[in-house]
Amino acid sequence: MRKKTMFLSSNKFKFTSLCLFVGASLFADEQVSNSVNELSPVEVTAMRFSDSLYESPVNATNITAEQISDSNLSSTAQVLNRYSDVYIRNMGGGSFLGQPSMRGFGVNSQSRVLVLLDGQRLNNIDIAGINWGQIQVNDIDNIEVLYGAQTATYGNYAESGIIKITTKKWGKNGGTFGATYGEYGEYSFYGTANYSTDDYYVSAGANYFHDSGYFANSLNWNKSATISAGLKLDTKNELGLYVNVGNMFISWPGYINATTSEELKKLYPNNLYHNEQDRVDYLTVSTSWENKTAFGEGSAHLGLNIRDKDVDWIGDRIVNSTLWTVSFDPKYRVYCGSEDESYVEGGLDFYFDQLDIHAGQGSWSPPYSTDINRITLSPWAGAKAQLDDTFSLIGSVRYEGVINDVQSNVSSGYAPYKVDDNEVVNGLAAQIGVNAKLNEHWNVYARFDQIYHYPSIDERYSIWGYGSSYTVDLDPEHGQNYEIGTNFSKGGFTFNASLFYTHLNDEIAYDGTIYSNKNIGDTNRYGSQVRLGYNYEKLFGAFTSWAFVDAKYASGPYEDEKVAIIPDITSKSGVWVRPIEYVMVELNFIWNSSQYKEGYTDLGQPTDKIPENYSLDLMVNVYPCDYARIFFGVSNLTNHMNCSYASTYLDYMSGQSMTSWYVEAGRTIRCGVEFKF
Questions:
Q1: Are 263 and 234 in contact (CB under 8 A)?
Q2: What pLDDT score does 233 carry?
Q3: Is 108 left (phi over 0), alpha (psi -120 to 50) or beta?
Q4: Predicted confidence band at 367 (pLDDT cuts at 50, 70, 90)?
Q5: Three-class SS of residue 24?
Q6: What does each C-alpha distance from 245 to 226, 284, 551 come to in angstroms?
Q7: CA 442/CA 438 separation, integer angstroms
Q8: Does domain 10-676 have CATH number 3.40.50.150?
Q9: How far apart are the first and last CA of the chain?
């Protein structure tokens, strides 16, 4: 067994420290007001800076800190699953597990949805999922979700949308302490403390979460600490710092092997095949500069994201991977025209990713090692032209260049190889939209996007020691997105709707017969989103949202067949009421239609689908005073068996097809208390 690698070498720490110091020094002359990071429900950053939703050709959702606090949920993935139109595919049942999906993207959708934490990309260059455990929900000030292609303004990962998470800044002096307790060995403790003046702020927090799990062998825990600070240099410039460090353990409960969904119901919730548990150390650092003057505004984030992960394949071997990412994104906007309603802007997104993977001899696979360096350099520019009091044109363009340097070696086995590969690829993305701001509360828009998506590292290279080492003919995905929509908000009512058509050339998919990815063909996605809500002061509120999509292959061997692991319809609805001033009751219903399993196309068996999923959730908050809160919640009240991922394969021993079903937890109850001082 290979000895666990150090979390980070001293040289890397020296390099990172130098980068952070130099970045802060370079921008020590400039900054913005506190409101920059506090988006209202009708503000979005589709063009990288805060704009009114009614002046932007985009469909978006903003989830506030108050919503997150009242939800009493333990992870960002759970918050998104309840309050946004993001479909979270949970393959293990744990609180911090979940693959985000938008606009009809199935397997590996996490590399088509950009996730940002204070400007720092959390998407990994391999196909590992988003580590939701490194985002503490108590630190979040706002979650902004932008639906639809944003590759021109945000780059390669934003093929279907963006999840943009902003942490709290300039909090009130004082602190918060809370604890939760639930079924199946769940308990947590968390606390934060804040201090701020007119010129600076400091905040620190810690969190411990433990859950033995609904299923056998599903223990997961997470320990983390955060610190954030900010400094006003003058009336125009502000510096910020956010640091989150921690570690977590995840025991994947595994899957149930069953030939049909009816057989699955008989085996659930036992009979899971458990074969993996992970230990992860992580560190996220984000430094920021914000500037706002009479003629424009600018910002830059210099960030570091580190993940050191040990994967224990039970009874087989340990695989260790160390990933670290350095990012830098300077950008500036200059206002022009009458009343500064027009602007030009531009910036540069830089990423340096390094991934090292090492594995010993396994019972069915040879030892291997892979070392990968990837540099991404993406200059971009955008502009808005205000044509009159109603109409405006908004557009952007991006050039994205990627340099890969890969050394990979498998010493033996049925597919031995040694790779020493260096490649340079590039592509263009663009967007143009027309917006009609009918009044201060209502807009309609139309938008066109030229999409570009370069393959992730694990799509381009088979880095896990099996199959062909290098997918020679794998091309980037590119295509077009067409969208029309409207946003309205007045008198407590909100309404958002959009229609879209997305065509992709050379969509990338995994082919289990060759143990590698390939350009499986062109795809078409037709869809719509509708969201309606109403809030009456602080007495009651309700919302319902529906997302529809029809995703099919347009060419290739699976022409006219459905793209797998995509529900045609997803819906989120909720209602809350305060029957008395100090009690709030909230009821939420999440429903997803049936969907095809992964692998069904290879076996020609599209009949047996993953059944529909739904969950009815109850939450009660009691506020005995301004400084305390007691809550009680039940998830999945009806104890419905849910499964959002299943893969069909051919059992060579029996010659029959078999399906591995990744099921989710049934009914769970939790309660807690929180104090403020």
A1: no
A2: 96
A3: left
A4: confident
A5: helix
A6: 7, 6, 39
A7: 6
A8: no
A9: 49
pLDDT, tens digit, 9 for 90 and up, residues 538-552: 899 999 999 999 999
Confidence category of residue 107, pLDDT binned at 50, 70, 90: confident
Predicted local distance difference test score (pLDDT) of residue 604: 55
193-213 pLDDT per residue, tens: 999 999 999 999 999 999 999
Distance CA 148, CA 162 (A): 8
- Give the residue among 190, 198, 144, 140 at the shortest CA–CA distance from 169: 140
**Cα→Cα distances 288→152, 249, 348, 565, Å:** 22, 30, 15, 38
For strands 643-651 and 140-147, give the pairing: unpaired
Locate all alpha helices (DSSP H) within 418-491, ordered by sequence: 457-460
Is the per-residue pLDDT at 30 higher than 80? no
**Among the listed residues 447, 495, 345, 483, the one whose alpha carbon sits nearest the alpha carbon of residue 41:** 495
CA nearest to 574, candidates 82, 203, 5: 82
309: nearest Cα among 354, 275, 274, 278:
278
Q: Please tell me the distance from the alpha carbon of residue 524 to that of residue 81, in angstroms, as a whole number.
A: 25
In terms of DSSP H, where are the helices of 229-375? 261-267
Which 3 state secondary structure label does DSSP give 345? strand
For the entire predicted model, the pTM comes to 0.91
pLDDT of residue 12: 37
Cβ-Cβ contacts under 8 Å for 79 (sequence gap 6 or more): 63, 67, 68, 71, 73, 137, 143
> Where are the strands (E) in 5-125, listed by range?
43-44, 51-52, 59-64, 87-89, 99-101, 113-117, 120-121
Three-state SS at 410: strand
Measuring CA to CA, which residue among 449, 405, 375, 382 is closest to residue 158?
A: 449
Q: Spell out where 459-492 has E strands.
A: 477-490
Q: Find the range with the poorest average confidence among 39-53, 411-425, 466-480.
A: 411-425
286 forms beta bridges with 242, 303
Contact 37, 169 (CB under 8 A): yes
AA identity, residue 318: I
Name residue, tokens 């990979």.
408
CA Rg value for the chain: 24
Confidence (pLDDT) at 512: 60
Torsion, Cα 174 179 180 184, to 10 degrees, reads 150
Strands 113-117 and 161-167 come out as parallel
Provide the token pair at 79: 């918050």
Q: Alpha carbon of 414 to those of 367, 371, 492, 515: distances in Å?
A: 12, 21, 64, 12
Strand 516-536 to 540-553 pairing: antiparallel
Confidence check: pLDDT of 557 > 90: no
Q: Which helix (H) or strand (E) holds 38?
A: none
Query: Residue 643 to residues 156, 388, 578, 597: CA-CA distances in angstroms?
Result: 30, 51, 34, 11
Copy the structure tokens of residue 299: 């910002």
Beta bridge partners of residue 220, listed in sequence order: 211, 250
Are 136 and 245 in contact by the 8 Å Cβ rule? The answer is no
